[in-house]
């Protein structure tokens, strides 16, 4: 039995069709179907197309087998479009807040030397959501054209755990100034130094968003 004949038999059995039923769909004899499956004769290109249509399969499955045939990736899937649009809306909201709320918070901080907690609250809410959404947005757009899903369940779980650890670390770091007036002035200079590393901080959130997307995208 040649490869095409073997694949034809597997696909026919998958479709739960007998040789007689398949022959009737193709308007050929049962002996013709049997000859194709045993390799005595070879179906021509036109017949291969008819066979694939009758079996609700792809021609490549007849040539390479049901398991080996690569299925075409469905582009512009709705879930990726919705995800990209939602992240885009978050970005627009962030721009509006940067133009309106942030200047006000900066002005209030300059008026009172130790009044930094509004900036930190902003950082662990809006900024966290923004940069994480940006990390989700990039793979969402890529997924509109290509398949970047991870096949390993262990790898996906690892990425989800790592992303949650990054987000938790960021939230805890931003929440420390709210612990009390005694501790906060002692750590003020240290926090101001950390604020200068915004690229590292925001980059880690972006990375967490990418890992979260890859970990949850099955």
TrEMBL record:
<keyword id="KW-0812">Transmembrane</keyword>
<dbReference type="Pfam" id="PF01381">
    <property type="entry name" value="HTH_3"/>
</dbReference>
<keyword id="KW-1133">Transmembrane helix</keyword>
<feature type="domain" description="HTH cro/C1-type">
    <location>
        <begin position="8"/>
        <end position="62"/>
    </location>
</feature>
<feature type="transmembrane region" description="Helical">
    <location>
        <begin position="80"/>
        <end position="102"/>
    </location>
</feature>
<protein>
    <submittedName>
        <fullName>Helix-turn-helix domain-containing protein</fullName>
    </submittedName>
</protein>
<dbReference type="InterPro" id="IPR001387">
    <property type="entry name" value="Cro/C1-type_HTH"/>
</dbReference>
<dbReference type="GO" id="GO:0003677">
    <property type="term" value="F:DNA binding"/>
</dbReference>
<keyword id="KW-0472">Membrane</keyword>
<feature type="transmembrane region" description="Helical">
    <location>
        <begin position="114"/>
        <end position="138"/>
    </location>
</feature>
<feature type="transmembrane region" description="Helical">
    <location>
        <begin position="191"/>
        <end position="216"/>
    </location>
</feature>
<feature type="transmembrane region" description="Helical">
    <location>
        <begin position="159"/>
        <end position="179"/>
    </location>
</feature>
<keyword id="KW-0238">DNA-binding</keyword>
<dbReference type="InterPro" id="IPR010982">
    <property type="entry name" value="Lambda_DNA-bd_dom_sf"/>
</dbReference>
């Amino acid at each position: 039995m040649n490869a095409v004949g073997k694949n034809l038999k597997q696909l026919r059995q998958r479709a739960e069709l007998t040789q007689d039923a398949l022959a009737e769909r193709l308007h050929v004899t049962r002996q013709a179907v049997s000859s194709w499956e045993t390799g005595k004769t070879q179906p021509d290109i036109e017949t291969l197309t008819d066979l694939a249509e009758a079996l609700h399969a792809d021609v490549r499955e007849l040539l390479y087998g049901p398991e080996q045939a690569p299925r075409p990736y469905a582009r512009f899937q709705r879930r990726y479009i919705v995800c990209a649009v939602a992240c885009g809306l978050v970005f627009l909201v962030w721009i509006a807040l940067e133009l309106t709320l942030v200047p006000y918070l900066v002005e209030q901080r300059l008026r009172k030397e130790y009044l930094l907690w509004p900036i930190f609250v902003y950082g662990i809410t809006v900024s966290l959501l923004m940069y994480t959404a940006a990390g989700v947005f990039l793979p969402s757009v890529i997924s509109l054209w290509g398949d970047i899903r991870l096949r390993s369940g262990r790898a996906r779980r690892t990425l989800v755990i790592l992303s949650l650890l990054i987000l938790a670390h960021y939230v805890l770091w931003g929440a420390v100034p709210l612990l009390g007036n005694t501790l906060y002035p002692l750590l003020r200079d240290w926090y101001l130094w950390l604020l200068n590393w915004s690229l590292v901080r925001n980059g880690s959130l972006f990375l967490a968003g990418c890992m979260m997307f890859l970990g949850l995208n099955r």
